[in-house]
Amino acid sequence: MKIGKSAFQCIVVFAFVLCICMSCLYLSCLIPSNMLKNNIEESIEELENLGSKKTITIMNRKIMFDIYADAMMLNTAYSIDSNHPFYSMLFARSNYVDGITDHTYQDKAYELNKVPVFPDVEDLGRVVRGEKLYAIEYARYWHGYLMILRPLLVLFNYMEIKTVNYIIHFILIAILLYQIKKKIGLKYWIAVVFGLIAVEGYLVCSCLEETIGISLILVESIILLSKKIKNYGMYFLVIGMLTAFFDLLTIPVATFFVPLVLYILMNQKQDNRLLWKTCIKYFILCLLGYVAMWAMKWILVDLIYKRELVKNAIRSSRI
User: Fold this and answer.
1) What number of other Cβ atoms are within 10 A of residue 22's Cβ?
2) Please, which pLDDT band fits residue 149 given cuts at 50, 70 and 90?
3) Which residue has the higher pLDDT, 76 or 97?
4) pLDDT by residue (tens digit) across 168-202?
């Protein structure tokens, strides 16, 4: 009876979060791309100056950021067809110009292998100018970042978005450090500070792609440390779902384990055996949410558009 109740609760929470995520993504895709045009045009010059990789040198150590991925994210954001928002949000095309693009490489292993060159900053410029290009689908991911990036591009260009990112990022870090010192202890606060310095956490906003996972970790951890969560099991299920929805396979493991480690530190006084048993259960729920959310994207595309995305995604993973 208890297992059945827990399973029903998981299904209800999963369905609710899925509907919220899809609704927000759908609403962002209703924004006409011409409202993003001016800020993306301003962004192209900065992206061209940075090149495909950005390198920052600190104390003879070179740190490289993948700016190429940022150009693809902006390309995908601009390629959304607001006249067909549901289709656009599921297939996440890049290099697409409505009424001009006449060929699209589908998200299939044998199709994507035929793509001459994947989109770069130069292609982004061509798309904004309305030139004819081949489009590329990347339907296997949710691309949940679009629900935030598209509205931001209405207001800000690439550099301005990174500035906003830095401000929000440092505010979140400050809140997290305050909570750790207050609710876990000074020695763990010191450990986290040195950890952030060691991994150059203060530089992560130099790349939009890297910001996604780190922002998820910070927000999840702050909510966890607030101790206002009534059901931790369902919370970890949601963490897994949001990781699949927003992240582009950058740091999914970290988004699972950082909140889990914080949970262990918050409950050190519990019996060790019981605590570890609970953590294993929460990890399984987190993994379940992650896999189910990702699979749901493939299933929706298959059911609605008959594209065999599940089969193609599994085949691609073996290549």
Assistant:
1) 20
2) very high
3) 76
4) 988 999 999 999 998 888 888 898 888 777 766 66
Q: Which of 22, 67, 26 is nearest to 44 (CA)?
A: 67
What is the average pLDDT across 93-110?
80
Structure confidence by residue, pLDDT tens digits, 239-290: 999 999 998 777 778 888 889 989 998 888 888 888 889 999 999 999 999 9
3-state DSSP of the chain: CHHHHHHHHHHHHHHHHHHHHHHHHHHHCCCCHHHCHHHHHHHHHHHHHHCCEEEEEECCEEEEEEHHHHHHHHHHHHCCCCCCHHHHHHHCCECCCCCCCCCEECCCHHHHCCCCCCCCHHHHHHHHCCCCCCEECCCCCCCCCHHHHHHHHHHCCHHHHHHHHHHHHHHHHHHHHHHHHHHCCHHHHHHHHHHHHHCCHHHHHHCHHHHHHHHHHHHHHHHHHCCCCCCHHHHHHHHHHHHHHHCCCCCHHHHHHHHHHHHHHHCCCCCHHHHHHHHHHHHHHHHHHHHHHHHHHHHHHHHHHCCCHHHHHHHHHCC
**Residue 281: what pLDDT?**
92
AA letter at 171? I
What tokens were used for 219? 């927000």
Please write down the long-range contacts of 156-161, taking CB distance under 8 Å and 24 or more positions apart: 156/39, 157/39, 157/40, 157/42, 157/43, 157/46, 158/39, 158/40, 158/42, 158/43, 158/46, 158/47, 158/70, 158/74, 159/43, 159/46, 160/39, 161/208
Tokens 């390198």 found at = 55
Q: And the tokens for 269?
A: 């006084």
Contact indicator for 93, 100 with CB cutoff of 8 Å = no
* Res. 10: pLDDT tops 80: yes
- Torsion angle (degrees, nearest 10) of CA 261, 267, 270, 276: -20
Instruction: Report the C-alpha gap between 279 and 7 in whole angstroms.
Output: 18
